[in-house]
Amino acid sequence: MKDQSDSVTEEIRSTAGSGYHFSDQRAGNQEVRAVYYSFALFVYGFLAIVALIAAFNIINSIGMGTSARMRQYGAMRAIGTSVRQLKSMVVAETSAYVIRGLLTGLGAGLPLHHFLYQRIITSRWGDAWNLPVSEFCVIAMVMIGAAAAAVAGPIRRISGMSVVKTISVQ
Predict the structure, then answer these.
(1) What is the DSSP letter of 128?
(2) Which residue, 17, 34, 71, 157, has fewest beta-carbon neighbours within 10 Å?
């Protein structure tokens, strides 16, 4: 393939004459593409680690919050609150965390994303900034998945404990 492209290049040079200068950008383009893919792999790997840490933080926060209020849940069960109502309370609290986190992330992240995109991409290549909808959907799915995982343990613990045992938890 290389021999054929070299012969085509030589044929173009001979046809055009000596007054023109030709350059082959293919090797440079391949290097740029390789650097781009390496950088993208690094950035997305870093973002995956950050997302994993955020998911574990959500799980830990919900679990710790539920464990800290276990006596209160026991007292609520003693006065007649059903396990289903307690589950709904834990799910509502978790949903509030997720919604607040998404809104805070959007409020802080979108202006920062727009600023960085303008400085790095638009200023060099002229590409216009677009709302990162697919990225937001991925983030929302990670948060919802982490919230579902966070709720599962405390709900199982609340469901399996008797009223007396729930009140006496230290």
Answers:
(1) P
(2) 17
